[in-house]
Each structure stands twice: as C-alpha cells, then as structure tokens.
Amino acid sequence: MGGAVPNPSSVLPAVIALNRLAFGPRPADLEAGSSGLDRPDWLARWLDQQLSPPDPSSGDNDDPEVERHLAAAKLRIRYPAGDGWEAVDEERPLACLGQPIEALWPLAANRPAVAGPERQRPRLEVAAATLIRAVHSRWQLREVLVDFWHNHFNVNAAGEPAVAAALPVYDRAVIRRHALGNFRAFLEAVATSSAMQVYLNNRSSRAGAANENYARELFELHTLGRDAYLNALYNRWRDVPGALRSAPDGYIDQDVYEAARAFTGWTLEDGAGLGGDAKLPVTGRFTYVEGWHDGYQKRVLGREFDPFQSPMADGHRVLDLVADHPATARNLCTALCRRLVADDPPPGLVALAARVWTENRSKPDQIARVVRAIALSPDFAQVRDAKVKRPLELVASFARGTGIDLVPTNPLLGELDGSGQRLFGWPAPTGHPDRMEAWLGAAAMRRRWGLLLGLAENRWETGAIDLAARFPAPLPAAAAVDRWQGMLQDGEPEPATTAAILSGMGLAADAMLTPGTKAGDDRLRRVAAFVAMAPRFNQR
Prior knowledge:
Shape: globular
Organism: Azospirillum lipoferum
Helix content: 40-55%
Number of strands: 12
Protein name: DUF1800 domain-containing protein
InterPro entries: DUF1800
C-alpha cells in the first residue's frame, strides 16, 4: 500500500484528515457544501471544537448519541453451573462501565467465587463501548487519541482477571480523562492505576525485593523509549554523556534498578498482610505503604535522591525526571506522528511536535497542543498512503461510511479478537503494532475482508445498511460500484476498482440492480464490502 508520498488524488484534504483524526467521514460529511469540508479553514475550525471536549469523568459528555447507544447495548453472557453458581444465559446491559474500582474488585479477588465469563465481563463491556464511541461519538479526535494511549499504556485485561476488573476505571478515569491533557499528570494517573499496578507487578514491590517490571517499561515504552537505552555502550551512570551535568543522553539498567526502588510501597488495597493481624482493605484502590518503601538514597538519570523523603516523593521525582527528558519528547512525538501521519514520519514533523511538546510541558492541554501542531503542519496535508487502518478503524470507518447504526455484539467482538486486534487483550506491554506490515499478511487480509463482508451482510446482527436512502431507484451495476466508491472513498471513482469488482461478481457493467429486491439488495451490500476491500479505503 505504498510509502509516504504527496497526495495526488482528488480527495478533499478534510476527508484525509477525517480518516486520520477521526474514524472516517459519515455520508453527510461528503455531501457537497453541506458540512464545509471544502473550506480552507475547515480543519482549524474542526480542531477548535474537537480539542475541547467535556471531561468524561465529570459525567457531562455532551454526546447524546453515544449515551443512547451505551444505554441500549447488551452483550450475551453464558456459562454452565459450577462450584457455587447457577447456570447463566442472558443478554445483559453494560453495567460495569461507570462502576468504581471497589465495586468491581470482588471479580479480581474472586470473592465470592464466580464463573470465568463474569471475571472477563468488564473487558468485553469496555470493548463494546469502544466500538460504540468509535462509530457514534461526536468527539472523534478524542476517540482516536484514546485508542492511541490505550496502546501506549497497554495492559492485558484478557490475561489477568484483576486487570479486567480494573479496566473500566482505567479507561474512564485514566486514559479518557487525560488523552488530551498534560503528560506528566497522565503519567502519574497511569502509575497509580489499579490496572497498571497489577499488570506490571508494582503492587508486589517491596524494599529489599523491588520489582523492576514497571520501572523498566516506564523508561523503555512509556517515556524515554528504546532508542535512549544506552546500556550496550555504558554500564556505569557516570559514563553516560551528560550524566555528570545531571542531563544524561539516555538511561541504563542502573537507572531502572534505582527507579524500581523509588516505587516500592506504591501498591493496592488488595488484602495483603501488613504484619501481625493487620491487613490492607480489599478495595482495589491505590495506596502507599510506608513500611514497604525503600527510603535510602538513590540516583536516577544522574540526579541524587536524598534518603527518607516524604511519602511517595521518590516516585514523584522519577516521574518528573522522565516526563521532562528530551528523549521522552522525541519518543512520544514520534509515536504520535506515526499514529496520525505515517509509519515513518518526516523528521521535521517529529522535531516540530517535540518542540511544541517541550514548550508546553507545564500546560494542562499539552497533548492537545501537540496534536493540533501535527494536524496543521504542511507534512500532515502532503503525506498520503503511509498508514493502513487497523481492524478497529476498518470496522468503525465502514460503519460510519455506510451509515450502519452499529450495535456491538459478542460475535463481532469475537471476530475483532480473531483479526489480531483483540481489544485490551494484547499480551505484551508494547500494545498493538502500529506499522502497516503487521496488518497486511495473507491471513490478516482474509480476516479484514471477512469483517467487511460480515458487517455489510449484517451477519452478526450489528445493524443493516439503509440501502433505500442511498439507492432510491434501479441503476446499472457499474454505476452502483462508482456510487459506493464516492460514498466510502470520496473523490473520483477508480475505473480499475470498478472493473475488478464487476468481474469478481460476474456482473456486466449495464446489469440492472434493483433496490428493495432480495437479489438487488444482496448485491448492493456486497458491492459496498468489495469497495471497502480495495486499497484506497484501507488507507488512512
């Protein structure tokens, strides 16, 4: 699907933006003159709106369509009778999404014991809500950034019931709340979240036995990045260039070990013993246990930490240091540019974003400012065909483009899992791959095509395409293919795509398709799926 090239097509720049900064345009967006997409200031005005959504944790989402779909959504839960529970087979609403951690933590502790599907229920509900928001939310840019940050701060809720129990709060109060905010505040919210505390084992970290998992991923993935790992060159902190000036170029294992000590005592109320008969409560909430903290002196990134600081001060200082490091600006801005523009983003664009990142590091809307700078840059407008849609984007953009009033169902979530993008179930801390080669193998392409055809034919009861609104009268097959190209891709239809679809379906160009008949509707739905299988729709 090509590398980064200037945009030569007839597609409006605003439509390209909607395929990168949103989950694709809706039919109304493409109606000539109706939405102002052809105005040169459209993107700036759209960004003004999109970068100031209401705080999702405030309860004021100002998104009635999403609220309506969330309230109506149901997922099936089914399991046989077991040790202490009766058999269940029912459609159940999304009841976990707004729950506090203490209400969901019994699923993590398995007290009382419940069936496995109950313990995985929160993950499935967040996955269903993610699909609803991707298709129906008016705050499309926030949804794109929420998807980005869930991958950046990945936790595997499919592999650990305690992470699944914590996922609704992680999604609502950590990722969604901070997706457009300040990175340093975001970093602390992640560090103190129940989901990350469980996933990277920091809740078990104690003085004398510090667990390095969280500290290592904090450096390697969350902040400075792998390119700043210099242990192959230096194994003593003072040898790292800049370290003696308290400004090292990167980090080494010594920094990870010392940072792990700084986070000892950061834990959860999970019922662990405190000595004697004392135990922590069993709520799943974050807490700090002073007796578990290694209070002795430390050195991280060339900075000396005096011993026995105030509670949590050591960990807070580590977060300050990694958030402000120049390598963090480069790493995070490269990742943002990769998500929004190209697998290999132009170096000048990364440098621009990193400069805006650094200049605004104390601003409450730091991330929003960086995203705006990327979106309004010349590189954003010029680079084309340098990204491919992952399965979530493919499903959401097809539903939006065809006007499907998408309803998430268990079979659809299962198909997404099988596509390689198991929502909130990627096992490694890296999150889902963000380069096109990961999604374009032969098996991956078959799954992509299956997703599109299943949606078009309403195979999983996710919602039907309203053909009557788009095809009010009979028309030749070639015209139907061209019309679907215009609705799903904008710009001029591609004759090669039209010819390939007609040939593959065994249709003559002038064969009449009659909406409202079974044969006509079946063919029109399949044409929509085949148009979406073409490279142009798969590109972002």
